Q: What sequence folds into this?
């Protein structure tokens, strides 16, 4: 009897909010922590987020990873929460031991050049064999090392550190710069110091730091809940609060294309060229005996704007950033290729056939756009298989450069 | 830091709670509460901690002055100087640009060229609340209502008590002085269930009701010129429940947190939508603010002791200040003036009004409140006029995305706000099934908080 009363009292004492809610909080917190030790691949719609989580300092992605998603789709469709506009495609994404998007064996091979830049250089949205570095490698006849990263920050020290680790046949850096990306700036003293410190830190320690950062900052439970929210905020049950991140526009052929809202806004601005950065990059690389060539990639909005049914009037100077930068780089004697005129012409030609050079649902260019860009680069700087041999790239008076 | 954020729930609250109850003695607990208050505040902008410390020091020294001096002139100095400093800080951070814009506008109106500079000022969060805490302390000490404390940390803990720091309620020192005095004898288990009950209900009000309504009406109101008459009414009614559940939810969470630490904070909302007239509504709505203005503005102005005209003047003036307290915008002043006019009108027709059936009075009061809220919610007079025009004359127009969800939430909100007992009327002793229900709903709140950034409280901007 006494035991029964005791049990009853205990049972009653458990059903109090002061008992239940703190424990519920503790349980949810533990579930959150536990899930952080699991792979986040099932919660991701593309490789980017999955491979960024455990990225060690100084690397672009988690090293030695192979990610495959048969139904990957575009970042803008995700950003604006437009499931009906997703373009599903398979995506294979492989990283090497240094944490860059390359086949692991590239570290044992002789490399013809380093490709540095942002997500356009990495090849967001396409598979390993469709990236710009893969295409250039195939055209040149020797591998091109893909050193593209999320931040798109290209610093001479980091490039040179990378060059020391690779078997470079030719000391050549192809710097890809995308319109709409943040204007490059000289790193601060602190950033330089951090960069040097990272370079000297053993790989194991960096891997651990990356893992710890991933555990702290990435919560699969948050991703799961975010997805659930997106299903409700679909513009029918609840207003789509993500839609403002993206501009949804109609092309003259009736197709719907998405643009990043920030990119559309920045098209109508005139940012500074930040020539200090480019001089610094050129001088430091030159001092280390490394050749620099620059490839300027137009933003999706700049390329497709002329083909939109409705387009806001462009004021004087709108969208001329790459042209100005190209001229400035030519004056500085940096070999440069501005892909804007070429891609704009190609877009017009392909649009008539219903083909695209950029994904409809993504900020980035697609495999076709990349292949065309690689061919244009190859044509500009005819680096044939033989040119993979050691040599220098020289700038002609008009800014065009040739392999020698 | 927000009460409805994971950082607060997983780190700040457990650490504050456990350390508080581990400490014994008054002084360590005062010090700990003061520290936690400043840490809590520093999550917004640590630079403004110095502002709060300055205001606290000035008021504390004024209190010491009252204890030391009986000379009326010195006592007057002790009351005017710190209050002037408090009001100067509030005036600079909250109203300087408003004043400059208004003067520039008036100057332009008369063809002048005055161009007072608009300063780049960041409004310190909660400044309207903690300066009012210190003002009530100084005035009550001056009037002899309270005995000022000699313990700086006790006073600092009162001003920076995290549960009431950034969005009230405006708790007067005398209301929790007893709890501060008995802080070393507080029983951890005595009110912990009541505290959690208040906290959970407040969280549900904020996350599940207010934020869901906001998710529908905010995008609709952003395109207010396209709304139909029905949509305009739905949006404004939605806002009425959103602002109520947002702020009442915050107040309930504050009260709950107070209970967890042994403080009994006063009631801030007493079912205002059950009010039968506008005066009744203001006695029930944001009680700590309306009683502040009643005690420290309306009554010193003469209250209702003078002629009808003077009473009307006092009411309208006080309510305009209430409006202005909410924000540096003329729409708030007009909102206040409208409330003042309604209070004056109510005084004129009170006898006839009270003969009306109860439901008529309640409905009419709520309807008049809604018209005021259209002004309150508007970002400017254009929006206010458009909303009122759409509400009062027939307009076809765009529907609202999520109207179905909004209607469900309005029905639920109305049932709770107009008919259900409020959190101070319930006993907070829940059966097993209620506890299970609350736990499930709280779990849903957590899941919601994981998927979206916590929405700030509407009253934070004030």
A:
């Amino acid at each position: 009897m006494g035991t029964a009363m005791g049990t009853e009292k205990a049972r009653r004492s458990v059903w109090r909010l002061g008992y239940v809610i703190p424990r519920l909080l503790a349980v949810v917190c533990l579930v959150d922590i536990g899930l952080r030790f699991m792979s986040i691949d099932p919660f991701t719609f593309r490789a980017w987020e999955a491979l960024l989580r455990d990225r060690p300092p100084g690397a672009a992605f988690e090293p030695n990873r192979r990610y495959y998603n048969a139904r990957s789709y575009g970042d803008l469709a995700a950003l604006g929460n437009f499931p009906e506009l997703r373009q599903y495609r398979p995506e294979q994404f492989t990283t090497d031991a240094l944490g860059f998007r390359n086949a692991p064996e590239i570290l044992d091979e002789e490399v013809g050049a380093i490709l540095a830049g942002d997500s356009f250089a990495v090849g967001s949205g396409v598979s390993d064999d469709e990236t710009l570095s893969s295409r250039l490698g195939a055209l040149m006849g020797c591998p091109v090392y893909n050193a593209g990263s999320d931040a798109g920050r290209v610093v001479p020290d980091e490039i040179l550190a990378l060059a020391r680790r690779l078997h470079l046949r030719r000391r050549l850096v192809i710097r890809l710069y995308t319109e709409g990306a943040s204007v490059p700036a000289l790193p601060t003293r602190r950033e330089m110091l951090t960069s040097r410190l990272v370079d000297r830190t053993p790989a194991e320690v960096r891997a651990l730091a990356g893992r710890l950062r991933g555990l702290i900052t990435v919560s699969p439970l948050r991703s799961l809940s975010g997805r659930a929210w997106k299903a409700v905020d679909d513009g029918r049950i609840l207003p789509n609060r993500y839609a403002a991140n993206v501009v949804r526009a109609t092309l003259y052929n009736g197709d719907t294309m998405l643009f990043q809202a920030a990119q559309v806004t920045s098209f109508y601005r005139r940012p500074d060229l930040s020539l200090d950065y480019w001089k610094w990059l050129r001088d430091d690389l030159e001092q280390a005996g490394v050749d620099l060539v620059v490839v300027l990639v137009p933003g999706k909005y700049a390329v497709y704007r002329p083909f939109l049914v409705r387009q806001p009037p462009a004021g004087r100077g709108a969208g001329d950033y790459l042209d100005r930068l190209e001229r400035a780089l030519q004056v500085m004697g940096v070999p440069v290729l501005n892909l804007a005129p070429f891609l704009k012409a190609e877009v017009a030609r392909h649009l008539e056939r219903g083909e695209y050079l950029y994904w409809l649902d993504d900020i980035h260019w697609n495999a076709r756009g990349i292949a065309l860009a690689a061919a244009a680069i190859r044509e500009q700087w005819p680096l044939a298989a033989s040119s993979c041999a050691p040599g220098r790239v020289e700038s002609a008076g008009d800014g065009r450069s040739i392999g020698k | 830091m927000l009460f409805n954020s994971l950082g607060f729930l997983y780190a700040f609250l457990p650490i504050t709670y456990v350390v508080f109850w581990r400490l014994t003695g008054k002084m360590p607990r005062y010090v700990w509460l003061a520290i936690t208050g400043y840490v809590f505040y520093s999550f917004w902008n640590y630079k403004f901690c110095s502002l709060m410390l300055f205001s606290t020091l000035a008021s504390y020294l004024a209190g010491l002055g009252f204890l030391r001096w009986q000379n009326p002139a010195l006592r007057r100095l002790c009351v005017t100087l710190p209050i002037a400093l408090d009001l100067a800080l509030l005036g600079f951070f909250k109203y300087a640009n408003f004043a400059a814009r208004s003067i520039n506008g008036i100057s332009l109106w008369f063809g002048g060229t005055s161009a007072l500079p608009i300063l780049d000022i960041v409004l310190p969060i909660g400044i309207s609340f903690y300066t009012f805490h210190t003002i009530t302390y100084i005035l009550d000490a001056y009037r002899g209502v309270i005995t000022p404390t000699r313990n700086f940390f006790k006073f600092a803990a009162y001003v920076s008590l995290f549960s009431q720091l950034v969005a009230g309620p405006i708790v007067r020192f005398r209301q929790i002085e007893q709890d501060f005095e008995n802080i070393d004898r507080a029983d951890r288990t005595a009110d912990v269930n009541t505290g959690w009950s208040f906290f959970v209900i407040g969280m549900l009000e904020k996350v599940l009701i207010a934020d869901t309504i906001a998710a529908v009406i905010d995008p609709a109101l952003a395109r207010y010129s396209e709304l139909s008459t029905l949509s305009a009414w739905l949006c404004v009614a939605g806002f009425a429940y959103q602002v109520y559940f947002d702020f009442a939810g915050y107040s309930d969470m504050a009260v709950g947190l107070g209970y967890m630490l042994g403080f009994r904070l006063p009631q801030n909302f007493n079912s205002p939508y059950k009010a039968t007239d506008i005066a009744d509504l203001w006695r029930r709505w944001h009680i700590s603010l309306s009683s502040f203005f009643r005690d420290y503005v309306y009554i010193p102005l003469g209250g209702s002791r003078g002629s009808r005209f003077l009473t009307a003047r006092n009411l309208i003036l006080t309510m305009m200040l209430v409006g202005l307290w909410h924000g540096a915008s003329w729409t708030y002043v007009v909102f206040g003036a409208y409330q003042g006019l309604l209070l004056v009108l109510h005084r004129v027709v009170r006898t006839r009004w009270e003969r009306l059936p109860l439901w008529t009075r309640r409905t009419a009061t709520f309807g008049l409140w809604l018209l005021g809220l259209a002004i309150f919610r508007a970002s400017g007079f254009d929006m206010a006029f458009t909303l009122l025009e759409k509400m009062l004359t027939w307009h076809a127009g765009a529907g609202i995305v999520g109207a179905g969800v909004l209607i469900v939430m309005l029905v639920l909100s109305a049932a709770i706000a107009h008919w259900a007992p409020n959190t101070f009327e319930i006993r907070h002793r829940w059966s097993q099934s209620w506890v299970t229900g609350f736990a499930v709903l709280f779990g849903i709140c957590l899941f919601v908080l994981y998927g979206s950034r916590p929405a700030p409280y509407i009253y934070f901007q004030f």
